[in-house]
Amino acid sequence: MAMDRTTKIYKAIVPFADILLSGKILAIDPSTGSQSSMPGYAWFEKGKLKESGVIQVPLSLNRSQRLFEISRTIREEFPVPDGLIVEYIPPITYRGKGMNKVSLMALQKAIGAIIASHPYEVFIEVPSASWKKYKPSEYVKSDEYDAISIGLCAMAIAKQVKIDTEEK
Prior knowledge:
Blueprint (H helix, E strand, L loop, with lengths): L7 H6 L3 H6 L1 E6 L10 E6 L2 E7 L8 H15 L5 E5 L13 H15 L6 E5 L1 H4 L11 H25 L1
Parallel strand pairs: 1-4, 4-5
Antiparallel strand pairs: 1-2, 2-3
């Protein structure tokens, strides 16, 4: 697949390619927890997917409690990663496109709770238009597979950055 080296995501990964390919990286598809969506995660070590799943958030909790539970789970149930990769959620919606403001604000809050879970050395946001190009062949629409795809996208770009750097 041809890679556009002028994109924001490529440029964002350039300074962190070595860490992404040698460290422990947590990729998250954000959610505050709902009947239709839970935060998906994918754990990468040395550029390879090691584990994936969803963070189960009790729906009986109010939004503040669900955000706390997401942050607590990341702090207590995962080793401290070197980096965090999340789906980029634009801070605005465009007329007739995208999600409603309530959903948008909820996802922004979820990302905040996720970011606040650890002092990450690397933090990268991957737009959906980018990660959707890296869906694995067995992809089925789910929070888990979205997180896997988010991580795979960052790893593929990091590998290309390394190739491009070595060619210079």
